[in-house]
Amino acid sequence: MSTLESPAPVREWITEQARAGREPLEVVAAMVAEGWQQDEAITVVQDVLHGLLVEHARANGLPEPTPVPEPMEAGGSHLLDGGDRKVPVLAYLRHPRVVVLGGLLSDEECDEFIALARTRLQRSETFLLDEGVSQVHEARTSEGMFFTRGENALCRRLEARLAKLCAWPVEFGEGLQVLRYGPGAEYKPHFDYFDPAKSGTAGILANGGQRVASIVMYLNTPDAGGETTFPDAGFKVAPVKGNAVFFSYDRPHPMTGTRHGGAPVVAGEKWVVTKWLRLGEFH
Ligand SMILES: O=C(O)CCC(=O)C(=O)O
Questions:
Q1: Does ligand 1 lie within 6 Å of residue 176's CB atom?
Q2: Do residues 53 and 65 touch, judged by C-beta distance below 8 A?
Q3: pTM of the full structure
Q4: I need a labelling partner for 228 at 20 to 30 A (CA). Which of 34, 180, 195, 248 fits?
Q5: What is the pLDDT of residues 107-125, one digit of tens each?
Q6: Could you read off the pLDDT of 237-280 as tens digits, one per residue?
Q7: Distance in Å, CA 53 to ligand 1 centroid
Q8: Relative to the CA of 245, which ligand 1 atom is closest?
Q9: Neighbours of 198 (CB within 10 A)
Q10: 124-132 — which CB contacts under 8 Å span 24+ positions?
């Protein structure tokens, strides 16, 4: 066999292919044609490409990429395994990394979340990283509440389903948050990661590290408005009861394209339950 036999030349060869603009899957196919097992070829290509991205980030003063939850395998099934429930993929984008999911929650689960949260709602706050405090802010006009992780059977069931779907440990997730938006309420576009340049960020990261993914799950279908918007991608997700939008961000930087918001509710109300996943164990 050729140059692909020993690791160092293989890695150099993959690097050359990447620099020449060859698609990763083409590189894998070429390796398979040389006798590599598909899974081993993918592992090596992934590893080399990750190394190149880290080098590039360092050279350009950008944060380095981290692993992220990945509900969909490249070329895999469009019916994802949520353990107790199969979850269909309705749409996905590569950049930003967004996956729209159908029927992640049953109608009964949605109604139960609303019933459990309703009496505990308070005006939502926004964490001001410069000041290190959480405050009511005009950019966020919803009401909300947090469950602690594993607080009740419903939370435990959904947390286990999300952990299975995303192949990300339950312990790396924050408690579920329920939000209610009345008519006209919105959440203006923002990023969910904590900006490393802000003074309050280090304290937040001490518990669980950075956020790396968000899952916004719709508990009802508003009469009009209330889409989850990704303005930099010109992409909007319709809030439909039981459906969800997953998005991941491999570094705390706008280059992830994950600026998103909740558009104003035009008629009716909008309820969501949101899960944020961290890079490490969250207490
Ligand atoms: O309500 C939505 O559609 C988006 C919610 C959101 O942006 C968030 O909770 O970070």
A1: no
A2: yes
A3: 0.85
A4: 195
A5: 999 999 999 999 999 988 7
A6: 999 999 999 999 999 999 999 999 999 999 999 999 999 999 99
A7: 29
A8: 3
A9: 15
A10: 124/179, 124/187, 127/200, 127/204, 128/200, 129/194, 129/195, 129/198, 129/199, 129/200, 129/201, 129/204, 130/198, 130/199, 130/200, 131/200, 132/199, 132/200, 132/203
